[in-house]
# Entry
Amino acid sequence: MRVLLSGYYGFGNLGDEALLDVIVTQMRARFPAAQIDVLSATPEATAQRYGVEATPRWSMRSVREAVARADVVLSGGGGLLQTATSARSVVYYAGILREAIRLRRKTMVFAQSIGPLDLLGRIVVRSFCRGLDRATVRDARSLKLLQSLLPQTPAEQTADPVFLYDLPVEEIDLSSEGLGGDPYAIVSVRKISNLKDGQHAIARAVDRLASVHGVRVAFLPLGGASDAEVSTAIIRLCKSAPMLLPECSLERAAAILRGARVVIGMRLHALILAARFAVPFLAIPYDPKVAALCDDLGYPLDPLWTPGRPAPSDPVTDALVDRLMSQRDALAAELRGKVAEIRAAAARNFDVLGELMRDP
# Structure
């Protein structure tokens, strides 16, 4: 059986590459005879790294041919059906599903966060995805939204596949990043339109970790150059001397997050990997999918700052950082206790895919 993966792959975003890594690994373990084709912005690099076929995502003729060759078309994982970035995103990804449905291929929304969707986005999903065979979503909010738009599609809440990510058995030496020995914290930020409103709070939290709690702080740019640019702007506001780590491989980034004492994160997959390895965190929910992750984890700490709302006062920021550190062991134990349940939910994505593949 031939499976086509449609997602935000080949752009160098380590969160999406982690998704692809896990999806390919799990599919090979469960469905060893399946042929995997990935729509990618850099198809040659994707094919070489993962040992899959890869199709250029910008060539609509190539995309249509890939859909026609496929037996199953998966849309996901990630946050694809949304209009937060632009209307083009939902039209592109839903358009691929529409073509697959038109050609009577098996179709599945796979481990996605759905929305936010404006009126046009809702119309596109309702129209283009009518006839979708199955759907799994990462959070309860997405499930409610998708069921309202596609009530005939069997849908269920699972969890992000990256909760299944495992580091290589061999130890990864982080001394070249200056992270050996002393406890350190990791900050993962990304560019958003109103980030300046919260930059002071992030810098304040970084300084509090360094000056009061004796924790070295390093910024990890999971999204490449744009993340590094935003990180540099915040570092300039700090009174302490946090580091900016260089871009690195997925394996090194995951090892860095696993070894952290605590994490401050905007990037969803920085927080997912932190939770996966039971590292307590403070979230910055720039997107509903980040808030939904915290809700589904039952995470007890308030966000450091919620974009779109006033930045917290210095005393509020200090108190939240102090609580993160003082309750760190208890928070880690709570996350550790949830990992088995969450990993089972993440594995359910592939159970549903198997059911779809076996359908006549």
Notes: The chain has two domains: 2-157, 175-339. Residues 328-358 form the longest helix (31 residues). The domain at 2-157 is CATH 3.40.50.2000 (Rossmann fold). The chain is about 50% helix and 15% strand.
